[in-house]
Write a structure and sequence with these properties.
The protein is α/β, with parallel strands linked by helices. The protein folds into two domains: about 30-115, Leucine Dehydrogenase, chain A, domain 1 (Rossmann fold); about 140-265, NAD(P)-binding Rossmann-like Domain (Rossmann fold, 3-Layer(aba) Sandwich). It contains ten helices and eleven strands. Helix 7 (about 170-180) links the parallel strand 5 (about 160-165) and strand 6 (about 185-190). Helix 1 (about 10-30) runs parallel beside helix 10, helix 2 crosses helix 10 (about 260-280) and helix 6 crosses helix 7. It starts with a strand and ends with a helix. The structure holds NADPH dihydro-nicotinamide-adenine-dinucleotide phosphate (NDP). NADPH dihydro-nicotinamide-adenine-dinucleotide phosphate binds near residues 170, 212, 215, 230 and 232. The site of NADPH dihydro-nicotinamide-adenine-dinucleotide phosphate has 26 residues, from helix 10.
């Protein structure tokens, strides 16, 4: 294997140490404990496991979390009222509604109801707008984690060709915007893109956020490229990414594994956003 592994677990652990220290300092100097409210509607096993991960990670760094497990047939109005309550609760600095929501609840109405100042997922249109207008706001957690990993390679993003495969609102588009903000030349690919391999082969930085197991094969990767695999796919009971790991690792310069790559960084960025939100209160 020629590629260096970008170990998300290790990087996340180091960042969480730093966050824990800052949480301690905040408590000591300002008597402030960052608070995170997590609302989970229904009993989807994957969502339950994500929420457990967020609760555990919060506790480890000293963030106070309140997790509400709500029934799948909850009325939208009741969920919106709960959000209102957390919006005006001074002990809560971050509000997260675990997605996806049951079909009878409008995801947009729910996201729009969260105060933009507590929107630690960065999905509220105000924060989306701030990201696109180079303003200061919450950056969605997975894209923020991806950028951290790219920075760890030491590769200067400016002037590089970054190719992002996937244009979702939660991963593809915001990560493309973050790379653009750092002066990469960015190409965004999607399901209608013609000649995907021709484009990915030009990438100095390649981000795969598609949800198709092993879509990115070794012949699609430029030698020495930074390859970030966001995909989480279950194949025969095993988790695999969107990148065909072993053969691509022979070609790439850096590569993230799945699991243990982008995933641990996502939760870490949620902790970081919650801490940032708490620090901003009263300022
Ligand atoms: P979406 O399904 O919302 O978006 C997938 C994107 O991939 C779409 O833009 C789609 O194009 C594009 N696409 C689909 N097929 C192809 C193809 N054959 N060639 C090129 N582009 C294609 O997914 P998400 O962005 O939410 O998630 C992507 C992956 O990342 C998933 O596996 C998800 O589980 C994982 N994920 C991991 C996280 C983590 O923390 N590790 C966090 C969030 C997601 P079009 O727009 O044209 O339909």
């Amino acid at each position: 294997m020629s590629a260096q592994i970008l170990d998300g677990k290790r990087l996340a652990a180091a960042l969480r140490q730093q966050i824990k220290k800052e949480v301690d300092d905040l408590r000591k100097t300002r008597g402030l404990v960052p608070g995170l409210a997590v609302l989970l509607v229904g009993d989807d096993p994957a969502s339950q496991s994500y929420v457990r991960g967020k609760e555990k990670a919060s506790a480890e760094v000293g963030i106070h979390s309140v997790v509400e497990h709500l029934p799948g047939d909850l009325a939208e109005e009741v969920l919106l009222e709960k959000i209102d309550r957390y919006n005006s609760d001074p002990a809560i600095h971050g509000i997260l509604v675990q997605l996806p929501l049951p079909g009878h609840i409008s995801q947009d109405r729910v996201i729009h109801r969260i105060s933009p100042e507590k929107d630690v997922d960065g999905f509220h249109p105000w924060n989306v707008g701030r990201l696109y207008s180079d303003g200061e706001g919450f950056i969605p957690c997975t894209p923020a984690g991806i950028l951290e990993m790219v920075h760890r390679t030491g590769v200067d993003v400016a002037g590089r060709h970054a190719v992002v495969v996937g244009r979702s609102r939660i991963v593809g588009r915001p990560v493309a915007q973050l790379l653009l903000r750092e002066n990469a030349t960015v190409t965004i690919c999607h399901s209608k893109t013609r000649d995907l391999p021709g484009l990915t082969r030009q990438a100095d930085i390649l981000v795969a956020a598609v949800g198709r197991p092993r879509l990115i094969t070794a012949d699609m990767v430029k030698p020495g490229a930074v390859v970030i695999d966001v995909g989480v796919n279950r194949v025969d009971g095993r988790l695999v990414g969107d990148v065909d790991f072993e053969p691509v690792a022979e070609v790439a310069g850096w590569i993230t594994p799945v699991p243990g790559g982008v995933g641990p960084m996502t939760i870490t960025m949620l902790l970081s956003n919650t801490l940032w939100s708490a620090k901003r209160t009263g300022k």
